[in-house]
């Protein structure tokens, strides 16, 4: 197969792009040809297989200027529709010939649909209609989701959303994790503090980090000797100070050690579509507390993790306290978490994606 992947920009630090990197690398290893096009200037991602052709779009620098200008005029909108609309038409005219033309996000759907190159396809990794707060962006997203193209989704939650809203019965292909890095292993704790670990690297309300802060305040009222660890690209600006230790941009190996050291790992998001951090934590044997929605594929309350309602700091705090106090339950999760995580391998993911692509082309 000749596969083309289109994105506005390629950000290896983003979880969705890390998934795509593993999938595309796996397809190349199976003998398929893969090309990636970034509509804005971008350096070739170092994690990509060298056989993958990584291209900047024609007029990429002009596209960046247009997008930046429109954002300035709209007071630095986080996602600018005017700027994107201005570049998508020009991009659609020169996309390469291919068998499958894959869009990364809803905005990328329009150029691949209009290009008439290959079968238009959307590899969906989130419900962008849910996470967007801009009514205009929601309208464009809905338009993209209504286009008659092929799609797959990465979670049961996203499948159910698309079926309820549009009547689609889309195939589900779960992502995976690297089991050579994320696995249980003993660590020498340098402190007698009880450690709660949380991802906190993106300033997005729906990531629920403020809920995590409120939950930790409740935990501190009930328990002494608890330390809050946070990791991410850069520290989030808190509305009010709260004591924590921040680990800046840890490598996967360093992150795995953070999971192994933590007494509890939490995921406070309001909604995700197969988030990797809870699964990585479970793979490392870290007792995990996560929210719905988007974790239905692997997190089962009381069986391998504690699952709490989103936007409920008290429920999150109660679950944290329960795991910190109940060593029997924590030990049970340390054994059951890796058993669940081991079911999610990149070989299985790539095989499933390849089968779906073949069915579409046949």
Write the layout of secondary structure elements.
Layout: E1 2-7, H1 15-29, E2 33-38, E3 53-56, H2 60-73, H3 81-92, E4 100-103, H4 106-115, E5 119-124, H5 128-131, H6 135-146, E6 150-153, H7 156-166, E7 194-199, H8 209-222, E8 226-232, E9 245-248, H9 252-261, E10 264-267, H10 276-283, E11 288-291, E12 306-308, H11 313-325, H12 327-341, H13 346-361
Parallel strand pairs: 1-2, 1-4, 2-3, 4-5, 5-6, 7-8, 7-10, 8-9, 10-11, 11-12
Question: Care to describe what's here?
Answer:
It is a single chain. This protein has helices spanning 15-29, 60-73, 81-92, 106-115, 128-131, 135-146, 156-166, 209-222, 252-261, 276-283, 313-325, 327-341, 346-361; strands at 2-7, 33-38, 53-56, 100-103, 119-124, 150-153, 194-199, 226-232, 245-248, 264-267, 288-291, 306-308. Residues 75-79 have low confidence and may be disordered. Helices cover 43% and strands 16% of the residues. The N and C termini lie close together (11 Å). The chain is α/β, with parallel strands linked by helices and 362 residues long.
- The value of Rg in angstroms is 21 Å
Q: What is the name of the CATH topology of the largest domain?
A: Rossmann fold
Low-confidence stretches at least 5 residues in length (pLDDT < 50)? 75-79
How many DSSP-defined strands?
12
CATH superfamily of the largest domain: Glycogen Phosphorylase B
Helices, by number, come to 13
What top-tier CATH class of the largest domain fits best?
Answer: Alpha Beta
Beta percentage is 15-25%
CATH architecture tag of the largest domain: 3-Layer(aba) Sandwich
Main sheet attributes: strand count, strand direction, barrel closure: 6 strands, parallel
Q: H/E element string?
A: EHEEHHEHEHHEHEHEEHEHEEHHH
Compute the average pLDDT: 90
- How many structural domains are formed by the residues? 2
Relative helix content:
40-55%
- The end-to-end span amounts to 11 Å
